[in-house]
Amino acid sequence: MIGMLSSEVTAMVTARYGLGRATNPPVYAARGELGRIWRLDTEGGTWAVKEALVPVLEADAAADVAFQLAVAATGVPLPSPVRTTDGQVTVRGPDAVLRVYEWVDLDPAAPDPSAADLGDLLARLHRVRHPARGPVGEWFAAPLGPARWTALAAKAAKANAEWAGPLDEHLPELIALDALVRPPDPAKVRTCHRDLNADNVRRATGGHLVVLDWENSGPAQPEREFAALLWEVGDAAPAAARAYGGPPPEREHFSTAIAVQGHLLEFYGTRALDPTSPAEDRDRATARLDAMLARPLTEKAIAELRDS
Questions:
Q1: Given this model, what pLDDT does residue 158 score?
Q2: Among 3.40.50.410, 3.40.50.2300, 1.10.10.10, 3.30.200.20, what is the CATH number of 7-102?
Q3: What does the pLDDT look like over 174-187, one tens digit per residue?
Q4: ∠ CA 41-43-48 to the nearest 5 degrees?
Q5: pTM of the entire structure?
Q6: In the structure, how many helices (H) and strands (E) does the chain have?
Q7: CA–CA gap between residue 75 and residue 4 (Å, rounded)
Q8: How confident is the model over 254-268, as pLDDT tens digits?
Q9: CATH topology classification for 115-307
Q10: Which residues have CB under 8 Å from 100's CB, separation 6+?
């Protein structure tokens, strides 16, 4: 059951961000892994209020906004972030951290962006040489490791989870794949989107593509983000690669995709097996596990992508 933004929280948001009086109650619009999105109509316009489902530091939010503004300055369409009247990106409500963007009307009937669209957009983002704030985090750089893989498989088997079988089937390949991960090269690291896919690139009602969900942006190697995109688009990888340009990825460039796959499977597995998690979260996690384990990244898949 999805709650509502209370009238008190709505009043706090409109006042802190200088949005004007709310003309309608907030309307639930969407949900991602990092938060919920509410549409808020006020005297000053229409806004997207993001309610974080994970801890958010103001310094991190300010860093991703700086990257968004640098990208927007090059002409890449994205929802404009809004700061509070005293220059902050986030405000803290009673139960969550919130932030605001200008609202963008999306066309729900429009087709997903093509692989070429995604490759072209990623190339445009990588031409923005925005410096990284700190090193690449473990989620994007470190393999899960045999102990955590086997522990996850054991928990799934003990719970008789429906995804336990597919995980056990692929477990040797997943453990072996970790050996391909190489540490990032600090000299090549800069700020990247880190979550560019068809879910986060949508077509607005005006017909143009809009890049969404920048809260996951941060330090990464561009060539590794490119390799991750090729895995994301699958059989359409050649079209994405042509649109992106540049040399084909090397095996070590899939290090980020390997690390993220491992951490995501562990994250979703832990959430799916946690009886204290909301049913909505457990169902979402199970669906993600089913999809990922139906098409896991493997050494064979990497070889095929590099040969395509």
A1: 98
A2: 3.30.200.20
A3: 999 999 999 999 99
A4: 30
A5: 0.94
A6: 11, 10
A7: 35
A8: 999 999 999 999 999
A9: Aminoglycoside 3'-phosphotransferase; Chain: A, domain 2 (3.90.1200)
A10: 13, 17, 19, 47, 48, 49, 50, 81, 82
